[in-house]
Amino acid sequence: MLVYIAGSGAMGCTVGYHIQKNTDSEVILLDYWQEHIDNINKNGLEVTGKVEDKIEIVALKPTQASRKADLIVVMTKSMKLDSMMQDVSHLIDENTQVLCLLNGMGHERILKEHVNLDQINMGVTVWAAGINGPGSINISGIGSIDVQNIGGNEEEGKKVADLLEQANLHTKYDSNVMHAIWRKVMVNGTMNSTSALLKCKIGEFFSTNAHKKIVDDLVNEFVEVGNADGIKLDKKEMLDYIYQTSESAKDHYPSMYQDLVKNNKKTEIDFINGAVVEKGKKHNIETPYNDLITQLVHAKEELQKAE
Ligand SMILES: NC(=O)C1=CN([C@@H]2O[C@H](COP(=O)(O)OP(=O)(O)OC[C@H]3O[C@@H](n4cnc5c(N)ncnc54)[C@H](OP(=O)(O)O)[C@@H]3O)[C@@H](O)[C@H]2O)C=CC1
Ligand SMILES: CC(C)(CO)C(=O)C(=O)O
C-alpha cells in the first residue's frame, strides 16, 4: 500500500513514522519545508520523547511525487487544507482513500470539494507531538485515533483503521466519529487557546483555581450548540474526557501554543472555538465565552504580526 502524509510536521511525521516502522506499507512524507525534507532524506527521521528512534523514510514536496496513492493522510494546519488538497490532486484516483486527522471542525466540507464522499475518512487523534527542528520530532503523548468513512464506505474505512492499528497508533473504527470530533474540539477549545494565551503547559493551566470556571463556561456553549446540531453530547462525559486528557497531556504545550508562542504563526482558532461561534449563530445560540477567546487569540496574532 502506498501512503502519503500530506503535511509532515509534528503529527504528520508521528503518523508516518508509525506506519513506515510497523507495517508493510510504503510511506512518503510530503511537505514544503525544504530543510526538513533535506534532513529527513539525508539523515533519516529522528523521533524523540515517548519513542526514541531514527528511521529511513522518503520526504518530498507534493509536486515531486507522482505515483497514485492508496491512502493520503492529511495532517496540515486547517487553514492550509484546501491548498494541500489541490497540491496532491494528481496523486488521487477513484481508488484513493483520504484520512483527515486535523484538530477542529468543518474539514469535511473542504474535502468534499476535492474527492467523493465515499473516499473521505474523518478521524480524530489525541496523540501529542512537537517539532525539535528540521528532520526531528518529539512525541510527548501516546494517544489513540478514531476513524470513520463518512460516505458509508465502511469496508474501506475499516481498512484504514486496521492499517493504523497495525502501525501501533491505537486506532479503532468509530461508527459515530462526529461525536468524537466534537469531544476533541472541546479538548482543544478548553486547553489549546488558554495555554497559548497564558503561555503555559496544559497541566499548568489546569493547576490554576481559575481554570474550572473557564472550562465550564466554554463547555456549556459547546454542549448546547453540539446538541442543537444533532450530536447528543453529555456535559459530564465531556468534562470527564477533558480532565482525563489534561492529565495525560499535562506536560505538553498544545499545537496552538507551538504556533502562536513558539513559531509566531497564525492559529487554527477559527476551526476550534470560532467554529462553535459560527454554528451557534445558525442555531440562534449565543456563545460569548468562545467568541471572546477567539477574538483574544486573533488580537494576539495581530499584535505579534503572526504569519
Ligand atoms: N501537535 C499535536 O500534538 C497535535 C496536533 N494535531 C493537529 O494536527 C494538525 C497538524 O499539526 P502539527 O503537526 O502540530 O503542526 P506542525 O506545525 O508541526 O506542522 C504543520 C505544518 O507546518 C509546517 N512547519 C512546521 N514547522 C515549520 C518550520 N519551522 N518551518 C517551516 N514550516 C514548518 C509544515 O508545513 P508547511 O511547510 O506547509 O507550512 C508542516 O507540515 C493540526 O490540525 C493540529 O491541530 C492534533 C493532535 C495533536
Ligand atoms: C491537546 C492535544 C495535545 C491533545 O492531543 C492536542 O490536540 C494539541 O496539542 O493540539
TrEMBL record:
> Which keywords label this protein?
NADP, Oxidoreductase, Pantothenate biosynthesis
Q: What does this protein do?
A: Catalyzes the NADPH-dependent reduction of ketopantoate into pantoic acid.
Catalyses which reaction(s): (R)-pantoate + NADP(+) = 2-dehydropantoate + NADPH + H(+)
Domain of life of the organism encoding this protein? Bacteria
InterPro entries the record matches: 6-PGluconate_DH-like_C_sf, 6PGD_dom2, ApbA, Ketopantoate_reductase, KPA_reductase, KPR_N, NAD(P)-bd_dom_sf
- Pfam families from the UniProt entry: ApbA, ApbA_C
Name of the protein in its database record: 2-dehydropantoate 2-reductase
Domain Ketopantoate reductase C-terminal: residue ranges: 176-301
Q: Name its pathway.
A: Cofactor biosynthesis; (R)-pantothenate biosynthesis; (R)-pantoate from 3-methyl-2-oxobutanoate: step 2/2
Similarity field = Belongs to the ketopantoate reductase family.
Recorded source organism is: Anaerococcus cruorum
**NADP: is it a keyword of this entry?**
yes
Say which enzyme class the record assigns.
Answer: oxidoreductase
Name the residues that span the membrane. none
Q: Which terms does the record give in the GO molecular function aspect? A: 2-dehydropantoate 2-reductase activity
Under which EC number(s) is this enzyme classified? 1.1.1.169
What sequence ranges are listed for the domain Ketopantoate reductase N-terminal? 3-150
